[in-house]
Amino acid sequence: MAKVTIQMLQSMKEKGEKITMTTAYDYSTAYFVDKAGIEVILVGDSLAMTVLGLDSTVSVTMEQMIHHIKPVVRGAHDAMIVGDMPFGSYNQSPEQAVYNATRLMKEGGCDVVKLEGGKEVADKVKAIVDGGIPVMGHIGLTPQTISKLGGFKVQGKTVDSAKSLLEDALVLQEAGAFSLVIECVPEELGKLITEKVKIPTIGIGAGKYCDGQVLVFHDMVGLFEKFLPKFVKRYANLGEEVLKALQEFKNEVKEGKFPSDEFVFKGVYEEELKRLY
Ligand SMILES: Nc1nc(=O)c2c([nH]1)NC[C@@H]1CN(c3ccc(C(=O)N[C@@H](CCC(=O)O)C(=O)O)cc3)CN21
Ligand SMILES: CC(C)C(=O)C(=O)O
Ligand SMILES: [Mg+2]
Predict the structure, then answer these.
(1) What residues bind Mg(2+), as annotated (predicted)?
(2) Which residue is closest in CA terms to ligand 2's atom 7?
(3) Does the CB atom of residue 47 touch ligand 2 within 6 A?
């Protein structure tokens, strides 16, 4: 695979080839996600939950995002790297949005940025794109505004809210977004938005008709147990595997089985050493 570009993702939509994206927050995870041929890696602000143990993404800072984007860039060869803009880094003004998107790209090294919201962020999206940085939109359940939404709930369940989300998608496309994440909406709405916009949609809990799918790495491999959204499929149970390995290590050390001979360096001077006692 060659380096994934926004043009490649656009042509995948046009050909009906599905796009895949997962999160990664460190070098070794990015290495494996890239090796698997996943096209897009999101350094998500979900690192609040998966890496930092917080209950929401709201307090994540620019410094924390840059800190995690850097090793992901080192671990990935071909995948497109998306830097998630943290809450408060783009809401104030188009100038603030351009400033912080530029920091994620220059200091972190990501290829593109993502930010949450619809019509209310269109001016920020346009400013960042005009500044030379591609933007992925993110609509539906927008975890950074959880206080307004009243919880991690499915969005667009009424006709009015569905209509408003479709308008958001069209406005973001018009503002220059190259792709859209659609989170936690009924499948029919994921389908409608995907058909109405020309840019690729990447769904999480938005059904099978989106142009691509994204999952949080820790969720899909079973390394996160605090909550399990309905849309998460566990493709591995690494949590169980890791727990087994740790318990075995502990037991073997306690029983004196580890380290056995094969894991030990032996000197040739045993007899001489004995004389030192
Ligand atoms: N580990 C992890 N996975 C994620 O998918 C994720 C994060 N963290 N952090 C940021 C946001 C928060 N997300 C969430 C969190 C919980 C639900 C959830 O439990 N939703 C209910 C919907 C209830 C309803 O409205 O019917 C569910 O049952 O799926 C959804 C998305 C998605 N993002
Ligand atoms: C859930 C995805 C889309 C995200 O924004 C994140 O992981 O931060
Ligand atoms: Mg996010």
Answers:
(1) 45, 84, 116
(2) 44
(3) no
11: left (phi over 0), alpha (psi -120 to 50) or beta: alpha
Residue ranges of E strands in 150-205: 179-183, 201-204
Query: Residue 45 annotated as binding?
Result: yes
Residue type, 146: I
Domain that holds residue 253: 241-275
pLDDT of residue 180: 99
- Confidence category of residue 272, pLDDT binned at 50, 70, 90: confident
114 and 220 in one domain?
Answer: yes
What ipTM did this prediction achieve? 0.97
Q: Whose CA is nearest to atom 24 of ligand 1?
A: 153
Whether 1 maps to a domain, the answer reads no
Identify whether residues 139 and 196 lie together within a single domain. Answer: yes
- Please give the distance, rounded to the nearest whole angstrom, from the Cα atom of residue 239 to the centre of ligand 3: 23
CA distances in angstroms from 38 to 35, 79, 163, 179, 229, listed in the order given: 8, 7, 32, 16, 22
> What is the model's pTM?
0.97
CATH number, residue 140: 3.20.20.60
Same-domain check for residues 52 and 103: yes
Residue 183 annotated among the catalytic residues of the structure: yes
Task: Out of 5-19, 29-43, 255-269, pick the least confident.
Answer: 255-269
CA–centroid distance, 84 to ligand 2, in Å, is: 8
> Which residue has its alpha carbon closest to ligand 2 atom 5?
44
- Three-class SS state of 67: helix
- Number of domains the chain is built from: 2
Same domain for 181 and 255? no
